[in-house]
Design a protein that fits this description.
The complex is a heterodimer of chains A (160) and B (285). With 160 residues, chain A is α+β, with helices and mostly antiparallel strands. Chain A folds into 2 domains: 78 residues, Ubiquitin-like (UB roll) (Roll), CATH 3.10.20; 70 residues, DNA polymerase, domain 1, CATH 1.10.150.120. Helices cover 34% and strands 17% of the residues of chain A. Chain A has 5 helices and 5 strands. A 5-stranded mixed sheet of chain A has the order 2-1-5-3-4, covered by helices on one side. Chain B is α+β, with helices and mostly antiparallel strands and 285 residues long. Chain B folds into 3 domains: 45 residues, Uridine Diphospho-n-acetylenolpyruvylglucosamine Reductase, domain 2, CATH 3.30.43.10; 111 residues, Uridine Diphospho-n-acetylenolpyruvylglucosamine Reductase, domain 3 (2-Layer Sandwich), CATH 3.30.465; 104 residues, CO dehydrogenase flavoprotein, C-terminal domain (Enolase-like, domain 1), CATH 3.30.390.50. In chain B, helix 2 links the parallel strand 2 and strand 3. Chain B is globular, with a radius of gyration of 19 Å. The model of chain B has no long low-confidence stretch (mean pLDDT 97). The chains are: A alpha+beta (160), B alpha+beta (285). Chains A and B meet through strand 4 of A and strand 1, helix 2 and helix 6 of B.
Chain lengths: 160, 285
């Protein structure tokens, strides 16, 4: 087949489209669905700017996913983290800790951070740094990103 | 070619193993099998032309990781590196494979990439390849005529060429039980890079005496290879510093690396023996 009809769920909403089979999830999100919050960085799986979540917790790369094979997938992008005008604790922490400079890595970084905390609510600095592999930041030196994740973890734990 | 887009191809999404086999029987060399896609799609963005992609994404029952203390380990074609890295039985009993999966790439690629895919890619730098060659086991291939098994020792026949025929695909990698103590080590610039050198060992120990060893090393030949001379040195001996020194020298003499973007032939040769020695020490620790 050269095109396929799929239904994907992005940030809780269903989208049914007919996609060319050679389109990546990243292209479909940004161009077909008009959601540019997920970024294109390298296209080859190294920078992590295109990181999205499956089932709210599993981080994957949209640039290396064929949209046509994602029928039924439940995808979260960074714009979907906010709930009724309130920022997600990870977003809040990134802002408060000054973990954002140019902002280009931020969507992917935030999504990776959410997946880290979903698996490990109280990660050590070493655990965070290891799990941040695959998300490259050229500006911050990662220090404030690590702090933001730790702060977000604490905030999320205290509201459980 | 921009890494933003993929070239055109025809996508096939079989809903069962027999359907996948039917498609491969029909298209053979014109088809590439896709599991996680983290390798194939990157190759295609760099210009690889593939008329047909047979995606295993909707074939049920291929994502298993089954460990039995008597039967050993069976890893399905769609089982991801993340599944292996999260598995305590593998960490305990097949440490080399566990580590090769846990350090490979990034968390995002590990959520998609597969052990079987790494083996089928047949890169001499493949981290899971080194672990697999040390641990032994077989690749299970499925074709129209049924299943056949190929020993891992005979699976990589030449640079990026496997024993798989165009009309079949790998459904499983299996390792027997009680393979012994194993370990994996790699040398790379940053963790998510390809290895410039990697090694894996599996030691069959009787107390302090090594009854047999499988020593695998990558990035030094067209495929991952075993250091047979070094394995002979270990056989029936206690693993002492002087035995390890002999192994180190033997490995250094046996490897035939080349210069490439990641490292030089000289450097690889120089450190190969030491890396193997340290991998053996890690297995014994």
């Amino acid at each position: 087949m050269k095109t396929r009809s799929i239904t994907i769920y992005v940030n809780g909403e269903a989208y049914s489209l007919n996609v060319a089979v050679n389109r990546t999830l990243l292209q479909v999100l940004r161009e077909d669905l008009g959601m540019p919050d997920t970024k294109y960085g390298c296209g080859t799986g190294e920078c992590g700017a295109c990181t999205v979540l499956i089932d709210g917790k599993k981080s994957i790369l949209a640039c290396l996913s064929l949209a046509a094979t994602m029928d039924g997938a439940k995808i979260t992008t960074v714009a979907g983290l906010e709930q009724e005008g309130k920022l997600h604790p990870v977003q809040e922490a990134f802002v408060n800790e000054g973990a954002i400079q140019c902002g280009y890595c931020t969507p992917g970084m935030v999504m990776k951070s959410v997946s880290i905390l979903a698996k490990n609510p109280h990660p050590t600095e070493e655990e965070i740094r290891r799990e941040l592999e695959g998300n490259i930041c050229r500006c911050t030196g990662y220090v404030k990103i690590v702090q933001a994740i730790q702060k977000a973890g604490d905030a999320m734990a205290s509201t459980c | 070619m921009s890494s933003r887009i993929l070239p055109e191809f025809d996508l096939l999404v079989p809903q069962s193993i027999p359907e996948a086999v039917e498609m491969l029987t029909k298209y053979q060399d014109k088809a590439a099998v896709m599991a996680g896609g983290t390798d194939l799609l990157v190759l295609m963005k760099s210009g690889l032309k593939v008329p047909y992609i047979v995606s295993l994404s909707e074939v049920p029952g291929l994502d298993y990781v089954i460990y039995d203390p008597n039967d050993g380990l069976r890893i399905g074609a769609m089982a991801t590196l993340a599944q292996v890295a999260d598995n305590a039985d593998i960490k305990k009993n097949y440490a080399a494979l566990w580590e090769s999966a846990a350090v490979n790439g990034t968390p995002q690629t590990r959520n998609r990439a597969t052990v079987v895919g790494n083996i089928l890619r047949a890169s001499p730098a493949g981290d899971c390849c080194a672990a697999a060659l040390a641990l032994g086991g077989k690749v299970v291939l499925q074709g129209a005529a049924g299943k056949r098994e190929v020993d891992i020792d005979h699976f990589w026949v030449a640079y990026r060429t496997t024993a798989r025929q165009a009309f079949e695909f790998a459904v499983e990698y299996r390792i027997p039980a009680n393979v012994g103590k194993s370990a994996f080590k790699r040398m790379t610039r940053a963790d998510q890079d390809l290895s410039k050198l990697n090694a894996a060992v599996c030691l069959n120990m009787s107390g302090n005496v090594c009854q047999g060893a499988r020593l695998a090393i990558g990035c030094v030949a067209p495929t991952t290879v075993r250091m047979k001379k070094a394995e002979e040195i270990l056989k029936g001996k206690e693993i002492t510093d002087s035995v390890l020194k002999e192994v180190e020298e033997a490995v250094k003499g046996e490897v035939t690396p080349i210069d490439d973007v990641r490292s030089s032939a000289w450097y690889r040769k120089e450190v190969s023996g030491i890396l193997m020695k340290r991998t053996i020490q890690k297995a014994c620790a």
